[in-house]
Amino acid sequence: xxxxxxxFYISIIIWLCLSxxxxxxxxxxxxxxxxxxxxxxxxxxxxxxxSFNTQCMYFLFFSLFSFSYIAHERIFESNxxxxxxxxxxxxxxxxxxxxxxxxxxxxxxxxASHTVYILKYIMPPATYRNDVFGxxxxxxTVFFNSNTVALLHSLVIGPFQYILLFSGLAFYILRKRxxxxxxxxxxxxxxxxxxxxRFGYHYLLISVLLGLVFITYFNGFSKLRSNLLKASxxxxxxxxxxxxxxxxxxSKSVLDIFDLFVVTYHTESxxxxxxxxKNPSSILYQYSYGLSMLGGIERxxxxxxxKLGIGYLSxxxxxxxxxxxxxxxxxxxxxxxxxxxxxxxxxxxxxxDGGVFGVIFFAAIFGFLFSYFSVSLKNRDxxxxxxxxxxxxxxxxxxxxxTTLGPMLPALFFLVVMKxxxxxxxxxxF
Length: 430
Prior knowledge:
Layout: H1 2-18, H2 24-39, H3 52-80, H4 86-121, H5 125-132, H6 147-175, H7 179-195, H8 199-219, H9 224-248, H10 254-277, H11 295-307, H12 315-323, E1 327-331, E2 337-340, H13 346-352, H14 355-373, H15 376-379, H16 382-396, H17 408-429
Antiparallel strand pairs: 1-2
Helix pairs in contact: 1-2, 1-3, 2-16, 3-14, 4-6, 4-7, 4-17, 6-7, 6-8, 6-16, 6-17, 7-8, 8-9, 13-14, 14-16, 16-17
């Protein structure tokens, strides 16, 4: 199956390239998933190898994803092309910049300062890591042991770091405007400090690589060498920070880091999905008909319903709670069972929304959206490009977790709503 899997992804990528489509974004996603999907068959860290039936789910999704992309591009390209509206984009940039400077950044700086104080005077990092997720007392010290403060931080500040990262990357790559990107990077670093995690540095590392690829795509290979030199410093710093926090949290050797944080963390969702598909009592078979893939947005209206006295549990809590249990997904080099949690992929939520039909439906949706927003690669519209980058993040990080249950989806929703109000305001004003 290893060679078949490798051949499948290479064939799809070649087909997209030969079709002459605006395929760079979808090709990057296919390279990412194809590399880790193929590597999972080597079972370097001892994880169970996927069954044929489970692998067919990945074949099905990425085949239909690519076909939908090409089909929508061919059918609707003339209707979706459009032009980049300079006035709307300038307003879009200015409003985001002022919101971030006046509200988001000060709030995040406050909690980051509180984090430093707690780590220095109240508890060690290992204890803090459990405390910030409420595993010790049910609430986090950094949020003043208030679940309401923690929830508001998650629902408001959480999406904004992605809003600023996505739009910041878009404006930097297409317009050479640094403000939003700089603030977005700072917010991600501060969030990594507050949560004492590594994923933020991973986000920034992927952002640097995407920036390098797209700048080369737009400007050609003439300045690739100088761009590589510019990118080497942030890549080195991010890798250093990731290694430092990993060692600080207890990892013993570089081999342990490679085995767990590189190989296992990037491939374990394949094994979890396979194990759960074989489990008839899994919540995968308790279909939610779209609510799981909309879980990141559903959280907001569930909060309102609960405040009105209507008891309802969001899919974020249901799926997140289920994936928090340990799954027996392999055997390590010492013959001990590998039990890991919290790393169900985006396929978990797609399948939970409707089984095989859910996978088919969302493959078509993602293909359409990638085609629609890839117009920005032609007309260089930073707004659409920011949404394309957001979709790429959802699928790239969908290999680790059901990303639509978290803040990335509300971030994209907010960008859409914000652009709508800007357009309405400009029409009324003029």
